[in-house]
Amino acid sequence: MSSFVMPTSSRFNGYASPAAVSTVGLRKSYGDKTVLDGIDLLIPAGSVFALLGPNGAGKTTVVKILSTLITADGGQIQVAGHDPAVDPQAVRGAIGVTGQFSAVDGLITGEENMLLMADLHHLSKREGRRVAAELLERFDLVEAAKKPASTYSGGMKRRLDIAMTLVGSPRIIFLDEPTTGLDPRSRHNMWQIIRELVSDGVTVFLTTQYLEEADELADRIAVLNDGRIAAQGTAEELKRLIPGGHVRLRFTDPAAYRSAASALRETTRDDEALSLQIPSDGSQRELRSLLDWLDSAGIEADELTVHTPDLDDVFFALTGSNQPNRNQEAVR
């Protein structure tokens, strides 16, 4: 019988990084409905991982399993080096969770919410007050600290929610739809908070329906659909999965335009604008090849622009009725 060894590290940004979270064949069903049908994830420590998917895709179920709120039906899991099924307390000691709905108690002040969380983490009164004060200052909540949390704006409640999550100094934070319902300014403020967390070495597991959010924040993205991973990779790798990318060359010299148009195959011509559209995945290799050809042919383009599909295109292509291979990976 062969044995399986759970991966404990991965190659990330050019160097080996320990895995903060890893799953192999993660499965979960409710009755006859399969919610997760074999999920494989490998999330390096100190990175932002975004899980995208339509409503009902299983995103929150993944978070609940990894944060020990529910158990999986099958598969192998490690969170912060621990198996949630074997040592859930060790996992809980290493993580923080902020859900779609705030855990803030509106009947007490922001400071009291923080001190309550400190008590739950068994901090001494002195240490609890120190940690609470530091986090309230870090999240710009000092002026509102003595006010009932019910008077806070949506953005303030989200900041307080994350501040409460950080009381236990978690190494991994699960943010389940953290900016749902926030206005654009509050959403951007939350993005900055997430970046600062990662700069401190925290791993962030983010679920979101905001594609711009994943594009802005995530080192790696997985698209979950019908309980399976449709694709995963960096934002740029995912965009290259979808056809429609191209390079546009624009010329001011009609002779150079005609030379390029006659030599380059599979181009779309715009004789009035003196521009050529060439199918391309936007990769560095393809761009270098095109530039080398222009140099060798002595043809000078006045403008080169790269157009690639955005995450909206990726999302709709992977979660629509006409899907590519569900097991397709952006990086092989």
Blueprint of the fold:
Layout (H helix, E strand, L loop, with lengths): L8 E4 L2 E16 L2 E12 L3 E5 L6 H8 L7 E6 L8 H7 E4 L11 H11 L4 H14 L15 H12 L6 E5 L7 H16 L3 E6 L2 H7 L2 E6 L2 E6 L1 H5 L6 E5 L3 H10 L4 E3 L4 E5 L4 H14 L5 E5 L3 H9 L13
Parallel strand pairs: 4-8, 4-9, 6-7, 7-8
Antiparallel strand pairs: 1-2, 2-3, 2-5, 9-10, 11-13, 11-14, 12-13
Helix pairs in contact: 3-4, 3-5, 5-6
Structure description:
It is a single chain. This protein has 332 residues and is of the alpha/beta class. It folds into two domains: 19-240, P-loop containing nucleotide triphosphate hydrolases (Rossmann fold); 246-315, no CATH class. The protein is 34% helix and 27% strand. The chain is built from eleven helices and 14 strands. The chain has helices at residues 59-66, 88-94, 110-120, 125-138, 154-165, 184-199, 211-217, 235-239, 254-263, 284-297, 311-319, and strands at 9-12, 15-30, 33-44, 48-52, 74-79, 95-98, 172-176, 203-208, 220-225, 228-233, 246-250, 268-270, 275-279, 303-307. The chain has a six-stranded mixed beta sheet with strand order 6-7-8-4-9-10, with helices on both faces. Strands 1, 2, 3 and 5 form a four-stranded antiparallel beta sheet that branches. A hairpin with a 2-residue loop joins β1 (9-12) and β2. The longest helix has 16 residues, at 184-199. It is elongated, with a radius of gyration of 24 Å. Residues 1-16 and 321-332 have low confidence and may be disordered.
